[in-house]
Specification:
binds guanosine-5'-diphosphate; D-amino Acid Aminotransferase, Chain A, domain 1; Dna Ligase, domain 1; binds manganese (II) ion
Length: 378
Amino acid sequence: MKLHEYQGKELFSKHGLKIPNGVAAFSPEDVQAAVERLSSANPDLKKVVVKAQVHVGGRGKAGGIKVVDKEAAVDAAKGLLGMDLKGLIVSKLLVEEAINIDKEYYIGLILDRAKRKTVLMASAMGGVDIEQVAEEHPEAIVKVWIDPAVGLTQFQINQVIFGANLPKEAASFIKVLYEVYSSYDCNIAEINPLVVTKEGQVIAADAKVDLDDNALFKHAELMQYHDPAEVDENELAAKEAGLSYVELDGDIGCVVNGAGLAMATMDAVKYGGGNPANFLDIGGSSNPAKVTAAMKILQRKKVKGVLFNIFGGITRCDDVAKGIVSAVEEMGGIDIPIVIRLTGTNEEEARQLLTEKGYKVGSSMDEAVKEIIALTHA
Ligand code: GDP
Ligand code: MN
């Protein structure tokens, strides 16, 4: 679960990190009230920064961050609210006292699955996209891997501070960042930029936090941060229907029973030269409603074709067949190719039902994969 910047900053601040004074706002009136609050806290306030709160990076470059005179905050907010920022509509803002940036640094903790460790990264080239720095100036990023059994050591903090030329005050930011990262089971906790102001203050000007969904049950207090507006519509529909679904980049929809077979199917599609649009496991039990839900998700994703790969064990092939038939009927027909491979329990019944309705049914996985690739890449 991704957090908004204002939520991440709230977490950081609770743990003692310095963040700019700020207030979340959801309407121009809120922004006016926020400016008044910030002004009463700081009578010298002149400039504020109005920041779009959406789950994308690079908001600055995309026009989602406005540094303006406090009198112009409401107008800036009106320009941001409703704006399309990299495909997401802005409905939430963060209004902050503007800071005088002298230097921008990057510090981040990310789970490195390949190394089975968390990697601490730091760079003096902060403020910009860290992916871009990684590509153009890989030498400017210092990385150390944290052994989960040992935790982050002072030695490692020194390593990145000296290695990346960070101010010594960054040490406490790294410590707290790690505290937040490990105590809330994060996949990512990142401050970009960590700012040194012209007045010499060190402050977290941005916050990116991504929590491990599988550990959320341990942190009930974080559920207040859940923003249904930011959840992918398809992943939500899949969750409600009890499907394991992961969206991918390709165009061949895969409906499979069992996680292992789903992985094998994706491999086979890739191996055959196609690109799977998703991982989808309809589960071991057979339930036509699940098939219908799966078909609807794939239709919304606008796949070029759908491959069913069903191995009937506990799952009964005829139940899946019923699901396919009723899903397509409910959708008023479907104009993309469907290739069905099923084998196992009640295979004969399924085959009969589907053939009657005009579907072609195979029992070889290899052939089915070849066929869907041929049909979608014609
Ligand atoms: P991101 O682009 O989505 O990562 O959003 P950030 O919160 O990192 O903001 C992008 C950039 O806007 C920062 O790197 C700063 O250069 C600038 N910025 C953000 N807050 C302030 C501020 O208070 N004052 C000034 N002058 N610039 C700011
Ligand atoms: Mn940033």
